[in-house]
Amino acid sequence: MQSKLNNLLFLIESLSGGGAEKVLTTLLQHLDSNKFDVTLCCIVDCGKYVNDVKPYVHYTSILPNPEQIKGIRKLIYQLKYKLIYSWLPLRLVYKWFVPHHADVEIAFVEGFATKLLAHSTNKQAKKIAWVHTDFEKHHWTNVIFKNKQNEEQTYSRYHQIVTVSVTVQKAFIKAFPLVKSLVKIIYNPIDHEDIIKKGKQYEPLPSKSKIRLISIGRLTKVKAYSRLLHIALRLKQSGYAFELWILGDGEEREMLQHYICKKQLEDCVTLWGFQTNPYAFMTQSDLFVCSSISEGYSTAVTEALILGLPVVTTDCSGMNELLQGEKYGIITENSEATLFEGIKQLLDHPEQLSHYKEKVIKRGKEFTLEVLMKPIETLLTR
């Protein structure tokens, strides 16, 4: 006789193409269907990963994709949006719009989803909040809550708070010491085999004639691609032969493209936009660069290690754990000047780059999905 399935509810604002959303997609695709019955509720029905998760969950959303509606439906959307985000008590938003029969309820991203699920009327459910952000460097949720005390009170309504790295945990506890006892670390799941498989797929990409740097992420301020372009300009002016590929989309794309054109960097910098298979691009590159001001536990850097790519990164959350100090790459101070020096060091010393490449292949093999999913499934079991 089959044992009762654990009913799970995951709540997230959308499945737009960011690191946390990608992590959730991997998690949902690999939860044991013999143990879990999963509902995913998106507040807004949009994002690049929606079709990837639908075969694995009961999918529902509160608001439609605003880009796919117009006329009177657009007005209804705007009214409903105001009701949910501003006008209605969150207890009623949960009661009217969120499925509420789960054994375990998970707010998978900090911010509004966490705030909303804290007002759950399902008194029987175990409640878990996932935190991906280093609140010491990038406390972006300030705009969601009235004040710090209100945010801490929100987290106190959860039974468990998951942070994705040691640095994220320390920053969270520093910000909210009263909920310290609820906090634990669980690392992000990564599908090692799928990444390797997709990395081998053919993509008609330009042939490589010089060293190729690659970076992947949302084109947003916190990813600091503007300083990476400044570094590219300095490298070009210093006579280095290189290519820089940047994969991802976001609100800064137009500004970044304008800078590339203005500084005549088209011959060495390419913005590729969002790619469904970034791994084929990574396997045809030599060095992964992370210029971020803040990270939680970088999915892109983890994927780079799996594909055997050495890494140069700014010092942000999770990097020391991923690179085990500087065993598998270079961690610079979180500044444009030191990141430039870190990249320049490997361009000047290709033998050092080769050394990292040999070592990083071994590190990449340590990210097995089975090991990473085990603590997650334990946490989600009632």
Topology of this structure?
Elements: E1 6-12, H1 19-30, E2 36-44, H2 50-53, E3 58-63, H3 72-87, H4 90-97, E4 104-107, H5 112-117, E5 126-131, H6 148-155, E6 160-163, H7 166-175, E7 183-185, H8 192-199, E8 211-216, H9 225-237, E9 242-247, H10 253-262, E10 269-273, H11 278-283, E11 287-290, H12 299-306, E12 311-314, H13 319-323, E13 329-332, H14 336-348, H15 350-364, H16 369-380
Parallel strand pairs: 1-2, 1-4, 2-3, 4-5, 5-6, 6-7, 8-9, 8-11, 9-10, 11-12, 12-13
Helix pairs in contact: 9-14, 12-15
Could you give me the name of the CATH homologous superfamily of the largest domain? Glycogen Phosphorylase B
Using the alpha-carbon principal axes, give the shape. Answer: globular
Indicate the mean pLDDT. 95
Distance between termini? 19 Å
Total beta strands: 13
Structural class determined from secondary elements: alpha/beta
How much of the sequence lies in strands comes to 15-25%
Q: Class of the largest domain, according to the CATH hierarchy?
A: Alpha Beta
Radius of gyration: 21 Å
CATH topology of the largest domain: Rossmann fold
Helix content: 40-55%
CATH architecture of the largest domain: 3-Layer(aba) Sandwich
Main sheet record: 7 strands, parallel
Unreliable runs, pLDDT <50, ≥5 residues?
A: none
Per DSSP, the total helix count is 16
Strand order, largest beta sheet: 3-2-1-4-5-6-7
Query: What count of domains describes the coordinates?
Result: 2
